[in-house]
Design a protein that fits this description.
This protein is an alpha+beta fold. It contains eight helices and 20 strands. It has a single domain, classed as Beta Barrel (OB fold (Dihydrolipoamide Acetyltransferase, E2P)), CATH 2.40.50.90. 27% of the residues lie in helices and 27% in strands. Strands 1-2-3-11-10 form a five-stranded mixed β-barrel. It has a four-stranded mixed beta sheet with strand order 14-20-16-17, with no helix packed on it.
């Protein structure tokens, strides 16, 4: 696989970075043309709209959600344009996971990049950074104006995801490697432990998220970081740290999580972000199906669905995943135990490779 090294500036003031994404502007925009992707059009649209400042998606990692907006389900063909004077359509969800760890991961990431003293401000569209201290070498300054901040660094990328975000290995500071250089997998593996991706996993601030497009050599490098974080979590014992410092001390994905109310996973219990997103999408479609059924029948009221109906969690989408320890492909639903309002992953997130 061909990777491209792109140098540039990372921006955060006026933006909402989290533990697995950050804004970046390439020093030489022509280097973006070196990346071959089926989602180049989506990238170009983002590039034009945001005047060259691009949202990155970190490779191989998944942070707790700080502002997950559930996609709107497709309205059935027979109900398009149909409304009711008595029925109220369920609200579309935009929610976060437990905030202490979610925001902590973002701030750990920024500190690694040389950005500290972060101040957040809330707005109707969510929280964003209103000011932060930028440190480059011996120079430091507090910046409050969007576009006037920024710390230098570089990324290594080979692809763009469906939302137009380059899937990236993110590095702070300088490198002697020339801007726009093609990087081989072995070369990237040699420097991977200097990346934010590796450090965030090693620290236990975020989860791994592996796809088939991630080379095995690079995945094993990241997995070593995950194992170190899991080992450190065991040393911490069962007493939670305040503020929380290791995701594996809090994780309920493989021990079991009860989902009887939305607050169980947004405020109380930490679970694998992919699981969090799937539960919310399932909950949204369950609510919508009840609304559509009432709309279709002409009922005056919506019959509430029976809880979260977790037994149907994988009815709509049950993709294949590769289980590393078993060296086998299975349906995602096959690695879950579901009993009433409780579900549990029988395989660790670090043991899974998603196909797409």
């Amino acid at each position: 696989m061909k990777y491209t090294l792109v140098k540039g500036i990372f921006y955060v003031v006026g933006h909402s970075p989290d533990g697995d994404s950050i804004k970046f502007k390439a020093s030489n925009p022509a280097n973006w043309q070196l990346i071959d992707s089926e989602f180049k059009q989506e990238f170009e649209q983002n590039f034009t709209t945001n005047v060259g400042v691009i949202q990155l998606r970190l490779q191989g990692v998944d942070a707790l959600e700080t502002h997950y907006a559930v996609p709107k389900p497709t309205v059935p063909a027979d109900l398009k344009g149909k409304t009711s004077a008595t029925l109220k359509e369920p609200p579309y969800l935009s929610l976060s996971q437990p905030s202490a760890m979610a925001k902590g991961a973002a701030e750990y990431f920024l500190k690694f990049m040389g950005i500290t003293d972060v101040k957040w401000r809330n707005s109707p569209r969510g929280s964003y950074i209103s000011e932060a201290r930028m440190t480059v070498g011996n120079a430091t300054a507090v910046v409050k104006e969007q576009g006037k901040d920024g710390v230098p660094g570089f990324i290594v990328t080979s692809d763009i995801e469906k939302n137009g975000r380059p899937i990236s290995w993110v590095f702070p500071g300088e490198t002697p490697i020339p801007d726009g250089t093609n990087i081989a997998t072995d070369q990237l593996a040699d420097i991977a432990d200097k990346s934010a991706n590796y450090e965030l996993l090693r620290s236990g601030m975020i989860y791994p998220l592996y796809y088939m497009t991630l080379a095995g050599k690079l995945r094993r490098k990241l997995d070593a970081a995950v194992k170190e974080a899991q080992k450190n979590a065991k040393k911490l014992g069962s007493k939670p740290q305040v503020p929380p410092t290791n995701i594996w001390q809090l994780d309920r994905s493989t021990t079991g999580v009860t989902v009887a109310a939305i607050a169980n996973i947004t405020e109380e219990q930490v679970v694998y972000p992919d699981l969090f997103r799937r539960v919310l999408r399932h909950y949204q479609i369950t609510q919508m199906n009840a609304y559509w059924a009432a709309l279709r029948s002409g009922a005056a009221n919506v019959t509430p669905p029976n809880g979260f109906e977790l037994s149907k969690l994988f009815d709509g989408a049950n993709p294949y995943v590769f289980v590393i320890s078993d060296q086998d492909f299975v349906r995602l639903g096959d690695i879950f135990e579901i009993k009433g309002d409780t579900l549990r992953m029988t395989k660790s997130p670090s043991d899974l490779v998603f196909l797409s």
